[in-house]
Structure formats: C-alpha cells, structure tokens
Amino acid sequence: MSNGKDNFSVADLSAALNAGDRADLVNVLKTQHDDLEAKFFEERAALEAKYQKLYQPLYTKRFEIVNGVIEVEGATTEAAVADQQVDKDAVEKGVPDFWLTAMKNNDVLSEEITERDEEALKFLRDIKWSKIDDPKGFKLEFFFENNPYFKNTLLTKTYHMIDEDEPILEKAIGTEIEWYPGKCLTQKILKKKPKKGSKNAKPITKTEQCESFFNFFCPPQVPEDEEDIDEDAAEELQNLMELDYDVGFDSNAVGTNGYDKQK
C-alpha cells in the first residue's frame, strides 16, 4: 500500500484488503475525508466573504429606498403631487413599516412580536449582519430612528460560537436598552388595590417581566460553573438558548432577504 495518503488508489485498497489491514485503511480514508472537509470549509468561508461584499451595494440601495433617501423611478414626483393638489407633508417617503412587515412575515419572529412592540418596531430603519472572527461568531445590528421608547439608535446582538460549522452556541451578548420612563416594553406594571381597612390607601404597584421581542437583547446567561444548576434548570436554559439562536438566525434571514418578505 502506498505510504502517501494523497496517492491512495484502488490498487492500494485491494492490497490493504488482501493484507487484512482494514482498520488502517479506514483511518486513511477518515484522514482524507477530514482534509477535504477542512478545504471545503476554507473555500466556503472565502466564497461567503466574496459574496457578502457583492451584496453590500444592494443592501445600501435597499436602505435608501426603504427610508426615502432617494426617489424611485415610477414613484410619485413632487410635480405630480402638486397637480393632484395633494399636501406634500401627507406623502409618505420610502416604504412605511418595511422592517416590521418583514419581521411579522417570518414564522419565528412573528411569535416574539407583541402588539405593544409593533409601534416601537415601526422606527426600525435597517438590520445588518456581520461575521466576527475573534471569537468566532456573528453580530446583528438593529438601527432605529429617534423614538419615544428608548434612547438607543443602535441595538446589537452578538453570538459567540464554539463550533461555527455545526453551529454550537457558547453565549450571546445583547445591548442594554435605555428605556424612557414608563416606556419599557419588557416589563408591565401591575396595580393592586389595598385591602379593606389598610392604613395605606394607595394602590400597590408591582413590576413584572412580560413577553416582548425586545427581550431578545437580554439573552439567557450561562453560569460559569455548570454544577450551579440542576438538570431541569439546565434543560430549560438549553431550550431558551436554542430559541434565542433561532430568533437571531431568522433576524439575519430577514435582514438579508427582506426583499421577498413583503406581502
């Protein structure tokens, strides 16, 4: 049998079988497979990087159209508006609620968006995805107009992957949202009347967490010591992390394929 794995042939296979050295033969095949797989991942990464650059002008043009930065051929012109005696201020620029519509048309994201979230998501101007190398993973960026809900104009979500090709999630990091007073969408305030005869006549208020897409930016935290959680808690954490990754994955899908998500 040939000593060089790159020169392995059918003749080598026959010789190995005749010699009864089948275990070594399987190991040689496994090594060749691993080498090819490594080359595949290397070439795939280069191809993805190449096309990510080619996509960028399209994303830029989409941003300009959606946000009314440029006029689109065939769209209503100012002259036409004047002829129709339409108030210019009433003419909406761009594509209103583009990202809210795209997100609601996605099966995973639509489950996370509440009615209260919708008004805030109307201020979303763009979603961008970028790959990160150290540590391996990717980052999502959500760009917002100034709005009455929170101070941030950029919310990010970063995923660190243990294995980028599987993929296996290590942890996720989100932006802390700076909510304006009384505008937090991830909490609700409950008011309870005091008991009869109570000296305190004021209603009792209690703050509770509630469902909201914006919980996405406060991902589940993995304890440093796995022994700190029991089996049930570990399973629940695993489910939360999988859901969190699914929302991130589909946010990327909406960001890259927003063109065909408008119904």
TrEMBL record:
Molecular function GO terms recorded: chromatin binding; histone binding
GO annotations of cellular component type: chromatin; cytoplasm; nucleus
GO BP of this protein: double-strand break repair via homologous recombination; nucleosome assembly
Signal peptide range in chain numbering: none
Top-level taxon in the UniProt lineage: Eukaryota
SUPFAM superfamilies referenced in this protein's UniProt entry, alphabetically: NAP-like (SSF143113)
Keywords from the UniProt entry: Chaperone, Cytoplasm, Nucleus
Pfam families: NAP (PF00956)
Principal location: cytoplasm
Protein localization: Cytoplasm; Nucleus
Family statement: Belongs to the nucleosome assembly protein (NAP) family.
Function: May modulate chromatin structure by regulation of nucleosome assembly/disassembly. Could function together with B-type cyclins in the regulation of microtubule dynamics.
Name assigned to this protein: Nucleosome assembly protein 1
